[in-house]
Amino acid sequence: MFPGRVTSTRLVDRAEPLVRELQRRASSPGRSPRTAVVLGRLLGAGVVVCFATGLFSHLVQEQPAWLPLSPRPVWLYRATQGVHVAVGLALVPVLLGKLWAVYPRLFAWPPVTGVRSVLERLSVLVLVATALLQLATGVMNTAQWYAFPFSFKPVHLALSWVLLGSVVLHVAVKLPVIAGSWRAPSAQDEDADDEDDEDDEEAVARRTALTAVGAATAATVLLTVGQSLPALAPLALLSPRRPGVGPQGLPVNRTAREAGVLQTAVSADWRLEVVDERRGALVLLTLEELRAMPQTGARLPIACVEGWSQDADWSGVRLRELLALVGAPAGSDVRVSSLQVRGGYRTSLMRGAYAQDPRTLLALALGGEPLHLDHGHPARVIAPGRPGVLQTKWVRRVEVLS
């Protein structure tokens, strides 16, 4: 052996006292397996809810031809996406509490005891990394702060599958601990540990920790859920968008300036194109001609993927009446194009069931007044059961597809 060379055995011997001291300092009566299991239940349930509602949102935005989604009930997307964002925000303190509860396990000694411990550590690594990234980018998306160098939607969808899989793997690896801590200890066990469970240091610390996490979760939800729940709107102090705040009393995600339509949207040369290229049919309509057509009113929500939503009174021309001008067959899919030159969703695909719905409008007015420029003047789409990003503003062209 070379002089001065430290063997791996000696390194382990030197590391063990340090690791055990770190474990002792990290230990706390509240950091018990039962605390971790209770928070783990909540975390697992929340991940499942967010996965289901998030997958539904993705399918609505990228509706495959084989999936017969319906525009009714009109409030469905508003409800599912509101739940998605509210539960996702609620999981932030739950995840932090869970990490606090299991923190001492980082200093377990020896760090690896076999195949099971390797699988456990790998599952924890994937679960924690994915959960932190998913929640962090999700919160940033609600604030429309895209400080990351990738497209949010596809990455968020891919991470949701990884997160769900890592939760399943982690539960499988930790099943013995979960089973042992699932139920509260029996009275006999409690008597054996302490005559009065209320005086038991671990039980008191556990309740304190869970109460703190519960209070933080409740505060997070109460201060944000008002962005989609009108009754709690006055409490939505942490919401990036607040109901009633914006032009014509309605929030705005992308302004006309941000979309690059300040000049084109107010041009006297603007014409709406309604076209069916297969039939060689084209109709051009001015704003005055659209206003001269029969007007229909509909009370529909704007429900954005960021979680906020608000009902509003819209009026305009039924989209199916515009499609009839070019002889579009009933049930035809439609592509709607915007004057927008910057940002995503410059076009949107609308399936036939939505295009033919009597409440789907090419809206010209909001609350009885002409559309504000930031709300899509001269014309925008408003349809039941669709996310706000698909309610195309500053419409210039409606094209009939198959």
Question: Care to describe what's here?
Answer:
By secondary structure, this protein is α+β, with helices and mostly antiparallel strands. The protein has 12 helices and 10 strands. The protein is elongated, with a radius of gyration of 28 Å. The N terminus is likely disordered.
How many beta-strand runs?
Answer: 10
| Share of residues in helices | 40-55%
Strand content: 5-15%
- Average pLDDT taken over every residue: 87
Number of domains: 2
Spatial shape: elongated
Low-confidence stretches: 1-6, 186-199
Order of helices and strands: HHHHHHHHHEEHEEHEEHEEEE
Major sheet: size, sense and barrel closure? 5 strands, mixed
Strand order of the largest sheet: 2-1-10-5-6
End-to-end Cα distance, whole Å, is: 78 Å
Summed up, the helix count is 12
Radius of gyration: 28 Å
Structural class: alpha+beta
Question: What are the salient characteristics of this protein?
Answer:
402 residues, alpha+beta, 2 domains, 13% strand, disordered N terminus
